[in-house]
Amino acid sequence: MTKKDHRPYNLSLEKASEIIGKLKAGETVTDCPCGETHQLNVNPKAKELIGKIFYESWGYDQTNIDFAIVVSVSPSGKTVLCRMMSEKVVPMGEGYAPMSEHVVPDQPYGEPFRLHVRSRAINPNDVSLVGQYPFCLRPDETLESARQHGAMRMGYFTRWEGKPLYQSHYA
């Protein structure tokens, strides 16, 4: 969108709201009183994120994996709404340490939460998702409840490549 000063055009509140609504919906505005065409600069890669699965790996003396799926992208492409995903244990054969396993994502659950889209330094064509997420949210629990009980954590989600991920835990 251009940074033109629109104050001299005396836009009515209704017309300004209409233009903002169109921009937020991803539409191009061609009927602006200034005579210019406006549109939000949406990251074209961001729209491709819908339905993609990301994971966060964390822990000190054990490795925890949290999965999230992208359910929508903001008009600017700078943030996404995600839902947590349950995980399913995948048998990987003999020889693994006790209390360790490989997991894959299973089913989405819970309310959507917002994460920021960030380009990756290693591969600028790929993205990571960053922000607070409900890391121990029960399927029937609300985000507000998770916030009140300290069940939110800061995470850095990487795109899941479709392979089982290693996870360890105590009893």
Could you describe the 3D structure shown?
There is one protein chain. By secondary structure, this protein is mainly beta. It has two domains: 1-41, no CATH class; 44-161, no CATH class. It is 13% helix and 40% strand.
Q: What is this structure, in a nutshell?
A:
This protein is mainly beta. Helices cover 13% and strands 40% of the residues. It has three helices and seven strands, in the order ααβββββαββ.
Structural class by sheet pairing and helices: mainly beta
N-to-C SSE series? Answer: HHEEEEEHEE
Distance between the termini: 55 Å
Overall radius of gyration: 21 Å
Query: How many DSSP H or I helices?
Result: 3
What about the largest sheet? Answer: 6 strands, antiparallel, barrel
- List how many beta strands DSSP finds: 7
Task: Describe the secondary structure blueprint for this structure.
Blueprint: H1 13-24, H2 44-47, E1 53-58, E2 64-73, E3 79-90, E4 100-119, E5 127-134, H3 143-148, E6 152-159, E7 165-168
Antiparallel strand pairs: 1-2, 1-6, 2-3, 3-4, 4-5, 4-7, 5-6
Keyword list:
40% strand, mainly beta, 6-stranded antiparallel barrel, 3 helices, 13% helix, 7 strands, 171 residues
